[in-house]
Amino acid sequence: MASTTATGDNDENTTISFGCDYAKSSNAKCHGKYCENEISKGTLRLSRLIPNPFIPQSSTREEQLMPVYYHVQCMINYLRTGNEKKKRIENVAKNLQGFDELKKKDQEKLKKLFNYEEKLQGNLSETSTTVQTTYLEHDKDKKYWQISYDNKSTKTKYGLLDEPDSNAIILYKDFSNKAEAKKYADKKIQEKIQKNEYTLKKQTGVTTNNQTPVATKRKRKQSPAPANTASTKRIKKQRTIITTATRKQPTRSASIRK
Ligand SMILES: [Zn+2]
After folding, report:
1. If you measure from the C-alpha of residue 20 to the centroid of ligand 1, how many angstroms do you get, rounded to a whole number?
2. What is the pLDDT of residues 161-186, one digit of tens each?
3. One-letter-per-residue 3-state SS of 43-99
4. What's the pTM?
5. Is residue 40 part of a domain?
6. Which residues surround ligand 1, an ion (CB under 5 A)?
7. Which of 19, 140, 176, 180 could make a disulfide contact with 97, Cβ separation 3.0–4.6 Å?
8. pLDDT score at 1
């Protein structure tokens, strides 16, 4: 089982509720897995309320809980990983305590961000027709690993072959473009096969090498219009010079007539 708990979020199933507010000081550090930076005073932050391990059971329920704070994006990253059972934010207005007290623009920002997450995950669902999935199995360890990608995001899913699907760990990633997402997926697949000794079992939705639809109507190469030959032909208009023979008036010879 140790092999599947790669996320290391031991407390990921213990979220009691989610909240949001503006950091009252810069003291709290972000709980984000790769962050751990401070959340500066006044910053919009999200939180998870979890059981406080330092308070004895005898205390009141309020005291038994403690918040852990996240930068907005760090919370999103936290929510992009883990198994199905993990508690997540489905609707910011409903699931985030303190949402109504936020500035309007921050409410809109959160709505937009979480709508995007929903879309991203929907696009990568197993029923999606455009998604490309590669499924690998590790025969010896009886575990599986699969990666799907669609547009510019990826979904990795892995777990033990004899465990229910809901135990599988899922990880969503979003990239700046499609090529980056594909690069990541290809790299991971190679890594699993070469280093971790997984075997490729099936691939779905994989198009045979970038079938960019060829335009059925071939554009006729338009040859340049024939040059106007008439213009080149030098029609020499021969000017017929009509010389009017000037009839010479008989000059009267000055004959001296006597
Ligand atoms: Zn952070």
Report:
1. 14
2. 999 999 999 999 999 999 999 999 99
3. CEEEEEEEECCCCCCCCCCCCCEEEEEEEHHHHHHHHCEECCCCCCCCCHHHHEECH
4. 0.72
5. yes
6. 30, 32, 35, 71, 74
7. 19
8. 37
